[in-house]
Design a protein that fits this description.
Number of helices: 16
Strand order of the largest sheet: 3-2-4-8-9
CATH architecture of the largest domain: 3-Layer(aba) Sandwich
CATH class of the largest domain: Alpha Beta
Largest sheet: 5 strands, parallel
CATH topology of the largest domain: Rossmann fold
Helix content: 40-55%
Distance between the termini: 72 Å
Shape: globular
Length: 390
Amino acid sequence: MFRAYLIKYVLFLLPGGLFIGLNYAFLLRTGELLSIHQIVERQQANFCLYGTALHDDTFYFKLDGYASKKPDVALIGSSRVMQVREGFFRSSFYNLGGAMNSIGEGAHLVDLMVKLHKPKLLLVGADFWWFNDKFSKINARQSPLPPKPRMRIGFLLKPASLLREGKITAGKYVNILTGRSAPSNDFVCTIGIGAAITHDGFGPDGSYYYSRLLGGKIQEDSDEKFAHTIERIRTAGNRFERGDHANAENTTRFLEYIRSIKEQGIQVAVFFPPLSPTVNRALDRYRDQYGYFSELRTILRDAGVDFFDFEDAPSLASNNCEFVDGFHGGDVTNARMILAMAKKDAQIRSFVDIPSLEAMIQRNRGRASVLDARVMNEKEEDFLKIGCSK
């Protein structure tokens, strides 16, 4: 009698166990359970894109990639600088964009970076809202979250959630499980569920690729006609809070770690990334309510901090079609930015092949991406719906 009960119990549990087992195998196959160091090693051995659907690990992923690369040129900043690529330079380069989303987080990042390796040149992309007194009081993660385990019980349900939400098809799920469409064989080597599904993710140089968005495959994440960003400005929210004064604490801390970096013999170049021309015009309507913009620039100049101000994209000869959205420039806009810095600064120029960069810009002008057969095998679309000829 006990044996019969046991058999029934096992049969009752079997479907659930099989379901969990398949999901675990799926996570293994996609590389979601690899350690950060294993991911970086795999990327350095082969051009692979890393895009996770489980981990909030950008800070530690970038730090490990930087330690592995030990580049001559490094870049820090938010997601707005993630389209600066190693191909823009003649020297080794690593992009830590996305690992610095506030002044405080940047201070932690720089402190850890210089203990691992000192680059010859550090580019610092500064977002204006970091210095806004109003934004700083409500929205600033001042230090990175502590690293978390790569495997947690809840992760075993994630594949089912993606299937239910339609973010992955049953066919794709089965193909990844069986190896018929394993990430390393599906056009581009990928690590992580996000990259496997979309071909979006971080490359070996730390820069980010928006393959699916630029290919016109998704609409929900597209800032069509820059409407989402303009609405942020209109409602004074989500990074576009209006403010009269720069936050004194954040400004002082920023100046302190810029000074500290220079004292260690590292060349530093600070710059403000651009907004799209349409968004910049929308911002102009409320410019008198953003007094901290000019105040911040005055503070930096008075402190002897040289900086490049690229807020106005036309100053770079860039246009709306070269943007990912209202405040994220694409590859070509960022290439123009590096070119402008190199032409104005002899020390930066030593790391940049200007004729090569000019030729790259000329070949790809009017696009948000630089043609790269390793990542996109399809035409870039007019994903912003603004009449761009790609």
